[in-house]
Amino acid sequence: MSLHVVVGFGPAGAATARLLAEQGHSVRVVTRAGRSPEPGIEHHALDATDLPQLTAVAQGAAAIHHCAAPPYHRWVREWPPLVAAVSAAAEDTGAVLVVLGNLYGYGPVDGPLTEELPQAATGPKGRVRAAAWEQVRRLHEQGRIRAVEVRASDFFGPGVTDGGHLAGRVVPALLRGRPVSTLGDPDAPHSWTYLPDVAEAMAEVAGEERAWGRPWHVPTEPALSVREMAARLAAGAGTGPAVVRRIPPAALGLAGLFSPLLRELKEIRYQFDSPFVVDSSAYEAAFAVRATPVDEQVKATLDWWRARPTTR
């Protein structure tokens, strides 16, 4: 078993760290605030852009898993130094750099998203994510680091709360039999990536040399609309038919005056106004991880939310 360093302990970082520990690896987690130790996991409080400290923590690591994300409205300013630091730490230590990416870099696309599409985003958050991977890819091609990016669609599943479009704004309401509101067209097909599958892919590609040097889409079940997913969740919860309402664009714009998060969502609203479908067949043809069936995803997600004190 090996030492792995996980930078960030949001939903994806926590799931990845805990999976690696369950697999028998030693895990060190880097966050600004730190946390109490848990089985198989050391928590280190430091700023990941502090290269000497990050490199010290990562000495001897087989892989550095970059799962950290600044607050949404600070991406443009804070992503570049964060990516520069984790890349430099990978170069200094020889660890494989596994970057958790998303799909913003493609920008609006007609048809399914594949890894071969250009990174053609026009919005600032999409451009900064595309530039981050380009920087990492260039270092890999120069032989300075070994790196891979794992790209996921919108997270769904246990551990996903305020940041998920099918999480804090949806599941608690459905558990109480209440209507839910959604961005964009509630009937547009949309790909939802199950969080435990993200962790499985992050762990798998770290040890697969043939994965390195390119991006991969996390195995993701066929796209389902918000209305279809809400119906499955409501059926699993036993709370009757799901009532799904579209948030009017004007209301979203007004709410954005008071919420930085909602204000920033304007850039990626295209993902919900029309079909947004991920093709993960390349990963599935090359590696072992497969998407968890949707019914299992729904059950595990509902069980997790039911166990939370705020949703009982």
Structural commentary:
With 312 residues, the chain is α/β, with parallel strands linked by helices. It has helices at 11-22, 51-58, 75-93, 124-141, 171-175, 195-206, 226-237, 249-256, 260-264, 270-273, 281-286, 294-306; strands at 3-7, 26-31, 41-45, 63-66, 96-101, 147-151, 154-156, 180-182, 192-194, 215-217, 244-246. A seven-stranded parallel β-sheet has the order 3-2-1-4-5-6-10, with helices on both faces. α3 (75-93) links the parallel β4 and β5 (96-101). The termini are far apart.
Short structural summary:
This protein is of the alpha/beta class. Helices cover 39% and strands 15% of the residues.
**Helix content class:** 25-40%
- Biggest sheet: strands side by side, in what order? 3-2-1-4-5-6-10
Can you summarize the main beta sheet? 7 strands, parallel
Number of helices: 12
Rg over CA atoms, rounded to whole Å, is: 19 Å
**Beta-strand percentage range:** 5-15%
The count of DSSP E runs of length 2 or more, i.e. the number of strands, is: 11
What coarse outline follows from CA principal-axis ratios? globular
**Which stretches of 5+ consecutive residues score pLDDT under 50?**
none
List the helices and strands and how they pair.
Elements: E1 3-7, H1 11-22, E2 26-31, E3 41-45, H2 51-58, E4 63-66, H3 75-93, E5 96-101, H4 124-141, E6 147-151, E7 154-156, H5 171-175, E8 180-182, E9 192-194, H6 195-206, E10 215-217, H7 226-237, E11 244-246, H8 249-256, H9 260-264, H10 270-273, H11 281-286, H12 294-306
Features:
11 strands; 15% strand; alpha/beta; two-stranded parallel ribbon; 12 helices; seven-stranded parallel β-sheet
